[in-house]
């Protein structure tokens, strides 16, 4: 499986860390709605088919990406930065150069993996 | 149906094996049953068997979408063990172990459970403490466990790199002598045959496409072979839990389906006797009676229903294999496959009534479901028959996640890929 | 050498004889021979014994599909088992032996199994060996007794336990077009794609490219096909944008067009230079793949079809054309299709006598008839081989009339032959295409499964797609190559192929049914046609049940020759068509792959070693190192003759009495910077950090979202918008990922940047009553007195010219400081501190003493924070801010986590003055009973020099409520039991006067 990182280009799945379902929403930090927190922490749609999910390019630029992927075929679709600001630039497949400029992370902030 | 024995085998050998009957019938579904079990895998079949045997409930259908045993019972690394840490787990898996120890007789089917032991190698003092804690928990919980020194390990599992110069030197190992391996397919077939001969209908190629309801209560299922009604509908579909429960309107569960790969080497003369696990990573291996080394490691780590994985895990598992047994570099990988695992949020299963009236749910086995098969079937049957859990599955509720009563063997929290 | 060798032709080099041995006997062959061809040339027909019945077996195939002729290769003391003789290239000094026989291949005691053959039919073991229900052999004992013998009888070759010393390597490759297979189709595809300038990789599993061109005897573009292939390959290899890999099989087709291949570099040579890899693991990311993997010939299932001397027709052609070896002198051909007629003609041309051509069909194509005429011998249409004869090797066949379903009748004719070549049609090698999970399609005309619709980016060509002729392969190959390269189709004329116009369609005959002996479907695992029918009778009808019940297709050849015949026999038994009976899904690997190659550079070095900047210093001072994750840390700095306990007690006592120094460089360090850094820390820590003054540090506790503890550590405020966070060594990576995820995914608007700086800083902790005096001597540029550097204060200064950052904090409970400097200055600063401490007798201390000091103080670490504990379990409630929400605050009060009876932190003191054991449990009754109720467990133990007692930390049900109670340790694993008192975990200096002093 290969994931086209908007910052680094297409990379092997081994460079990425899976961070799960991207459709869950974190309640407002001050929320005391226990059900909302439970849904966020524990409950998953776990679909067979299209799945929107978070991957961190932990062996690369360390950015978190929202990846549209099919859980039945492993086919990887659209990929964008999890950070909203870069969403538009990243959504265009050919926008690697543009994405670099709007990258949420300066290269200097790229941490080494596996510390 | 004829008993299986050396005598019956001899008798049939003399007439060219022409008189053997099918191990289970191939009935058409009846319009209604007392209990429907969705999922003709190990757990579903065991549940049907114990419903019939322990509770006298024989008007039961097991519905299997493909061929019987096509799920994880047919694609695992065959390890049976009860070397757990937490009291809930020890109680459940020890119960299972005791059922395993008599299973071939119980089923009149040789499931080839062989108690050649499982050895967990420890590679640092801290890991040794962890394993000793677990071993002591097993002993105090009524199980068996021993601590081996590196010298004893060298004798038990020759070829393990116990040299001090190894990147991860072996400081000791936790041995559960009663653990071992069983012939996975035979477990499915044995339970199927046992359930069938007690009257259970096992219906293959029958996919559930929807649920029937009376008010809020589940009253049966729609299938590719027509509607089937039952007062009690039990779901034991492991990796397909999300898919099936969605048909009942349960959109979210504390479960993610992940792919786990497993591997077999070419057939070799005896190389290793029992099961050995590598502590400086994640690897478990044993040798089948046919001679293939059977081994596996971590799940791939992403949601999947594809029954196939990718290269990084393949490379990681092989790297750990040759780190543990440097002789194996020359041995060749013969086959690999992938299974879909119902990874729960604390790494422990769910065996419960509900979540809808008329429904019963068995899932969340992560990749430890095989060894649990007898206890899972036993306790799920109990739960279905009596509408309350047996003592061994009482902790395995669905609401424990929300209530914070977690059974987290690995201490990883709500990150299924880490369990 | 017997007269099996043809005077000329083939890939062998008759000027280079090669000596090798098989089962202790020395033979001679030529460079270019495989073990199979060389032994056949020497008249050897017996290669091995079958798995179950130990029947004598010869060689059935000529390539990777060989089920029978498996041997063990010995290199010095190293053994490599189960290598097909058909794939093993001989070299001078090659030593091989046969397998699965005792005492010898010719006389094998295991052959006694054939007498009991009726008993050991498919699945017999499920029905017996269960033993008595009661008595000493109840339970699993009787089975395990039987199994002991079964395990020793089973298995093929033997692997030894000696470590392999070979080198393996991995190659990452990227190309636009990957062409798998270098037959005419693959060659044409590679040529076409290369012509567009794209980057092309062409792989061939054999040592010589060319595939069918090497054996066809056809002409391509006016040249003999074998020469055409050699010329094409040479031209392709010379192109800068083409990489030609021979001895390489692509074995895995993974997601994202990632393919795995194995290149065998060292198996065909007698020795390699130091550092040369034996195998190379290729990971190829291909834009488009062209699968030109050809087809495997199928045998026909009939009685005695496993006798040495029975061989696939295509294999016989290969031995003749490629190796100049006649597989027999007097040969019969048995077929259901035209392709075997080429074998007949070729064998005849090479000097064999064709005794008969037996064809199940009643009529054949004119081209086949022509070939039959050339071959000579009797043409028996509508006939089949119903039995074979011979002791050990084949001496004759029995031929009878056959009907369309494979039933035989009529007069039996015996024909004396020493070789029978068989063709049951061809199965395209669709394995790679099938790995993506799609179902193959059955083609009724070709009687074969064709590849599925592509689930990934691949195109097919040649026999892989069912193409029967070389011309079609060239055409399809070129078209696929161009399309894969994104180029327009070409109308240019292709090279002309001279080949007979054969009928590509076989008759649908898979099994010849006749009463009597065994007819083998899976040769290696001894699965017979009757076994398949037994499986059917017992209800194991689906293809997967068939496979699992009979073991059909599970052997090292992975059913390459047996899958379709087995399926056909099951379909016939069920009265349904072959595709209705099912298909098998192929999975990686296509053919076996060495485990070493997949580990590649990690063989011998599984994971990197992490060393602190002061590592060499520790080693020089005789430190005994211990692993801490990937790190190596000093455990103790022992003196000769000291026990571990004596050493750490001495080290810990030195800290309490004067001063000690410990390397803390392994702590995780994260730079948290940005305008929202303080707010960010407030959210991720349970306690407040926005109120922390610049130049001060604070101990912080971090929870997971589910409310349990993730990690702890101190965080230093270096500036208004700049913090340095420290984590425990073990949790550094996890904490970094946790924080990054929150920042990137949950709070994208926060202006914070995180940088892991663990490796940038070296750290040393100085602890003990004289710690300040040491610093006073060492540090320039700042005072270190209590006013300048109060508890939890931070100063910057210099030690022997190196800039340092010093924070006064204590893990040991003593007056203590952590000194951080650039990693490159680590040893320099360390040595300066040692020198400054000399008057005070400063001692370096290791992990054991560090642990002792923290246990005395009751500080928690990874042993307690095991992912299952809450802040309250560790009595860290005061760390839980009520003024703000934080990660985990909403979930930490759930009923299961608030339960008072959870296991909670306590101290324990050994009452019998015996050492305590980490991992021991606590029980209420002094009893060696098992089972017994555990009320908790010990997490950390030491001999406390400060208290002169064996003490420990433990997590015990109820925690504090049990202070003052007596209990007992239970450590059945090590046989240790003893009385303990449960006490507060703050053993030493509970009011903290020493560290604040």
Oligomer kind:
heterotrimer
- Tally of strands of chain C: 52
CATH superfamily of the largest domain in chain C: FAD/NAD(P)-binding domain
Q: What is the H/E order of chain B? A: HEHEEHHEHEHEEHEEEEHEEEEHEEEHH
Which spans of chain B have pLDDT < 50 for at least 5 consecutive residues?
A: none
The largest chain-to-chain contact, stated as pair and per-chain residue counts, equals: B-C, 123 and 121 residues
Task: Kindly provide the radius of gyration of chain C, computed on alpha-carbon positions and rounded to a whole number of angstroms.
Answer: 38 Å
Strand composition percent of chain B: 25-35%
Spatial separation of the terminal alpha carbons of chain C? 94 Å
Number of strands of chain B: 18
- Let me know the largest β-sheet of chain B: 8 strands, mixed
Descriptive account of the structure:
The complex is a heterotrimer of chains A (115), B (419) and C (997). Chain A has helices spanning 34-42, 87-91, 96-101; strands at residues 2-5, 9-12, 17-21, 50-56, 64-70, 76-81. With 115 residues, chain A is α+β, with helices and mostly antiparallel strands. Residues 85-115 of chain A have low confidence and may be disordered. Chain B is 29% helix and 26% strand. Chain B is built from 11 helices and 18 strands. Chain B is globular and about 65 Å long. The two termini of chain B are 43 Å apart. Chain C is of the alpha+beta class and 997 residues long. Chain C has 6 domains: 1-163, Ubiquitin-like (UB roll) (Roll); 166-296 and 425-487, FAD/NAD(P)-binding domain (3-Layer(bba) Sandwich), CATH 3.50.50.60; 519-587, Arc Repressor Mutant, subunit A, CATH 1.10.10; 615-665 and 760-853, Gyrase A, domain 2, CATH 3.30.1360; 668-756, Alpha-Beta Plaits (2-Layer Sandwich), CATH 3.30.70.1400; 899-997, Elongation Factor Tu (Ef-tu), domain 3 (Beta Barrel), CATH 2.40.30.110. Chain C is 22% helix and 29% strand. Chain C has 23 helices and 52 strands.
Question: What tags apply to this protein structure?
Answer:
heterotrimer; A: 115 residues; alpha+beta; Folate-binding fold; 4-stranded antiparallel beta sheet; two-stranded antiparallel sheet; 3 helices; 29% strand; globular; disordered C terminus; C: 997 residues; Ubiquitin-like (UB roll); FAD/NAD(P)-binding domain; Arc Repressor Mutant, subunit A; 6 domains; 7-stranded mixed beta sheet; 23 helices; 52 strands; 22% helix; elongated
């Amino acid at each position: 499986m290969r994931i086209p990182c908007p910052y680094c280009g297409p990379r092997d799945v081994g460079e990425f860390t899976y961070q799960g379902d991207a459709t869950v929403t974190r309640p407002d930090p001050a929320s005391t709605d226990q059900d909302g927190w439970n849904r966020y922490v524990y409950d998953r749609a776990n679909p067979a088919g299209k799945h929107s999910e978070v991957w961190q390019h932990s062996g690369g630029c360390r950015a978190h990406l929202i990846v549209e992927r099919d859980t039945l075929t492993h086919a990887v679709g659209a990929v964008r930065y999890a950070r909203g600001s870069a969403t538009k630039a990243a959504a265009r497949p050919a926008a690697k150069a543009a994405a670099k400029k709007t990258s949420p992370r300066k290269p200097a902030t790229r941490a080494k993996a596996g510390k | 149906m004829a008993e299986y024995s050396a005598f019956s085998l001899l008798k049939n050998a003399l007439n060219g094996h022409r008189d053997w009957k099918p191990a289970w019938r191939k009935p058409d579904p009846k319009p209604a049953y007392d209990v429907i079990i969705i999922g003709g895998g190990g757990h579903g079949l065991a549940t049907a068997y114990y419903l019939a045997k322990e509770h006298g409930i024989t008007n039961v259908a097991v519905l299997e979408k493909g061929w019987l045993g096509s799920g994880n019972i047919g694609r695992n690394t065959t390890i049976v063990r009860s070397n757990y840490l937490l009291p809930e787990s020890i109680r459940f898996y020890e119960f299972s172990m005791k059922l395993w120890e008599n299973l071939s007789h119980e089923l009149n089917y040789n499931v080839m459970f062989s108690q050649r032991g499982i050895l967990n190698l420890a590679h640092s003092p801290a890991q040794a403490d962890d394993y000793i804690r677990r071993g002591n928990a097993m002993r105090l919980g009524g199980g068996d466990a021993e601590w081996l020194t590196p010298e004893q390990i060298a004798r038990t599992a020759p070829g393990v790199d116990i040299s001090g110069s190894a990147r991860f030197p072996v400081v000791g190992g936790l041995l559960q002598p009663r653990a071992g391996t069983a012939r996975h397919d035979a477990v499915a077939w044995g339970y199927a045959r046992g359930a069938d001969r007690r009257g259970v209908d096992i219906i293959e190629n029958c996919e559930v496409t929807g649920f029937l309801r009376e008010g809020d209560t589940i009253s049966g299922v729609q299938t590719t072979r027509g509607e089937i009604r039952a007062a009690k509908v039990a779901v034991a579909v492991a990796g397909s839990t999300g898919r099936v429960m969605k048909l009942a309107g349960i959109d979210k569960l504390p479960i993610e389906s992940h792919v786990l790969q497993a591997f077999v080497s070419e057939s070799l003369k005896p190389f290793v006797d029992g099961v050995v696990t590598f502590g400086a990573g994640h690897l478990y291996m044993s040798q089948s009676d046919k001679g293939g080394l059977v081994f596996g490691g971590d799940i791939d780590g992403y949601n999947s229903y594809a029954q196939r994985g990718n290269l990084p895990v393949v490379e990681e598992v092989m790297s750990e294999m040759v780190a543990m047994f440097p002789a194996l570099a020359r041995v060749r990988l013969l086959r690999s496959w992938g299974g879909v695992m119902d990874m729960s949020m604390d790494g422990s299963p769910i065996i419960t009534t509900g979540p809808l009236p008329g429904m019963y749910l068995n899932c969340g086995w992560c990749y430890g479901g095989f060894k649990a098969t007898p206890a899972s079937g036993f306790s799920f049957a109990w739960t279905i028959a009596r509408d309350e859990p047996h003592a061994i599955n009482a902790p395995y509720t669905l609401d424990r996640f929300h209530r914070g009563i977690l059974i987290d063997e690995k201490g990883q929290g709500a990150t299924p890929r880490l369990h | 050498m017997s007269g099996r060798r043809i005077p000329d032709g083939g890939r062998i080099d008759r000027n280079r004889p090669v000596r090798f041995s098989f089962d202790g006997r020395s033979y001679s062959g030529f460079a270019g021979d495989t073990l199979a061809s060389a032994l056949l040339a020497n008249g050897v027909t017996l290669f091995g014994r079958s798995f179950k019945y130990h029947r004598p077996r010869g060689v059935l195939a000529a390539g990777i599909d060989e089920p029978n002729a498996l041997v063990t290769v010995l290199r010095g003391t190293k053994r490599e088992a189960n290598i097909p003789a058909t794939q093993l290239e001989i070299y001078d000094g090659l030593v091989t032996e046969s397998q699965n026989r005792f005492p010898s291949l010719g006389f094998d005691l295991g052959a006694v199994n054939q007498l009991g053959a009726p008993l050991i039919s498919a699945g017999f073991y499920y029905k017996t060996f269960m033993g008595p229900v009661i008595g000493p052999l109840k339970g699993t004992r009787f089975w395990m007794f039987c199994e002991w013998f079964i395990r020793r009888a089973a298995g093929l070759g033997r692997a030894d336990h000696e470590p392999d010393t070979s080198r393996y390597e991995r190659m990452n490759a990227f190309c636009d077009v990957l062409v798998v297979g270098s037959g005419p189709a693959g060659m044409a595809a590679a040529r076409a794609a290369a012509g567009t300038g794209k980057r092309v990789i062409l792989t061939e599993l054999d040592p010589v490219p060319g595939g069918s061109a090497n054996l066809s005897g056809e002409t391509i573009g006016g040249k003999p096909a074998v020469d055409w292939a050699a010329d094409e390959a040479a031209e392709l290899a010379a192109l800068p944008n083409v990489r030609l890999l021979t001895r390489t099989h692509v074995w895995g087709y993974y997601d994202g067009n990632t393919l795995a291949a194995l290149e065998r570099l060292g198996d065909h040579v007698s020795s390699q230079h130091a550092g040369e890899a034996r195998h190379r693991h290729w990971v190829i990311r291909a834009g488009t793949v062209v699968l030109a993997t050809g087809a495997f010939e199928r045998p026909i299932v009939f009685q005695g079809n496993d006798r040495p001397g029975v061989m696939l027709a295509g294999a016989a052609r290969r031995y003749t054309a490629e190796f100049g070896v006649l597989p027999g002198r007097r040969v019969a051909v048995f077929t259901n299709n035209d392709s075997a007629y080429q074998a007949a003609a070729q064998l005849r041309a090479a000097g064999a006598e064709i005794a008969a051509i037996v064809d199940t069909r009643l009529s054949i194509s004119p081209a086949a008839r022509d070939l039959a005429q050339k071959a000579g011998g009797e043409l028996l249409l509508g006939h089949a081989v119903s039995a074979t004869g011979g002791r050990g090797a084949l001496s004759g066949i029995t031929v009878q009339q056959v009907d369309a379903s494979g039933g035989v009748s009529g007069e039996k004719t015996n024909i004396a032959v020493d070789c029978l070549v068989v063709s049951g049609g061809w199965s395209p090698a669709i394995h790679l295409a099938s790995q993506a999970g799609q179902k193959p399609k059955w083609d009724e005309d070709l009687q074969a499964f064709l590849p599925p619709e592509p689930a990934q980016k691949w195109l097919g060509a040649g026999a892989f797609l069912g193409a029967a002729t070389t011309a079609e392969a060239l055409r399809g190959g070129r078209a696929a190559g161009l399309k894969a390269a994104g180029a327009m189709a070409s109308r240019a004329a292709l090279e002309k192929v001279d080949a007979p116009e054969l009928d590509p369609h076989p008759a649908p005959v898979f099994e010849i049914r006749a009463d009597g002996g065994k007819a083998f479907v899976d040769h290696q695992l001894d699965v017979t046609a009757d076994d398949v029918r037994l499986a059917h009778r017992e209800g194991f009808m689906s293809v997967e049940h068939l496979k699992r019940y009979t073991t059909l297709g599970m052997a090292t050849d992975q059913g390459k020759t047996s899958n379709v015949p087995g399926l056909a026999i099951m379909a016939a038994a069920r009265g349904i068509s072959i595709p209705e009976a099912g298909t098998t899904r192929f999975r990686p690997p296509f053919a076996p792959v060495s485990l070493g190659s997949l580990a590649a550079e990690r063989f011998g070095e599984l994971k990197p070693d992490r060393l602190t900047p002061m590592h060499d210093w520790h080693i020089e001072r005789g430190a005994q190192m211990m692993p801490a994750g990937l790190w190596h840390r000093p455990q103790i700095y022992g003196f000769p003759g000291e026990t571990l306990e004596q050493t750490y007690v001495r080290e810990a006592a030195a800290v309490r009495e004067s001063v000690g120094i410990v390397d803390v460089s392994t702590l995780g360090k994260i730079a948290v910077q940005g305008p929202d850094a303080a707010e960010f820390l407030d959210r991720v820590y349970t306690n407040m950090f926005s109120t922390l003054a610049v130049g001060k540090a604070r101990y912080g506790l971090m929870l997971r979202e589910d409310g349990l503890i993730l990690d702890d550590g101190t965080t230093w405020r270096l500036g208004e918008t700049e913090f340095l966070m420290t984590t425990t060594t073990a949790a550094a990576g996890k904490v970094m990922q946790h924080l990054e995820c929150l920042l990137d995914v949950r709070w994208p608007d926060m202006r914070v940047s995180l940088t892991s700086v663990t490796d940038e800083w070296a750290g040393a902790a100085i602890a003990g009553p004289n710690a300040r005096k040491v610093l006073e001597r060492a540090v320039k540029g700042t005072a270190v007195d209590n006013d300048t550097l109060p508890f939890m204060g931070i100063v910057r200064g210099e030690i022997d010219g190196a800039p340092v950052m010093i924070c006064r904090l204590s893990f040991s409970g003593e007056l203590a400081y952590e000194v951080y400097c650039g990693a490159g200055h680590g040893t320099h600063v360390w040595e300066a501190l040692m020198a400054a401490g000399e008057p005070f007798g400063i001692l370096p201390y290791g992990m054991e003493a560090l642990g002792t000091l923290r246990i005395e103080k009751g500080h928690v670490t990874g042993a307690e924070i095991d992912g299952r504990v809450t802040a309250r379990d560790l009595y860290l409630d005061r760390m839980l801010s009520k003024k703000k929400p934080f990660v985990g605050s909403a979930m930490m009060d759930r009923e299961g986590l608030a339960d008072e009876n959870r296991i909670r932190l306590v101290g324990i003191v050994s009452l019998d003055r015996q050492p305590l054991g980490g991992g021991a449990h606590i029980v209420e009754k002094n009893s060696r009973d098992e089972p017994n109720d555990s009320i908790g467990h010990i997490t950390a133990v030491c001999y406390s020099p400060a208290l002169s007692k064996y003490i420990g930390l433990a997590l015990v049900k109820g925690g504090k409520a049990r202070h003052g109670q007596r209990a007992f340790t239970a450590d059945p694993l090590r046989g240790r039991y003893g009385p303990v008192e449960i006490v507060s975990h703050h053993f030493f200096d509970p009011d903290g006067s020493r560290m604040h002093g």
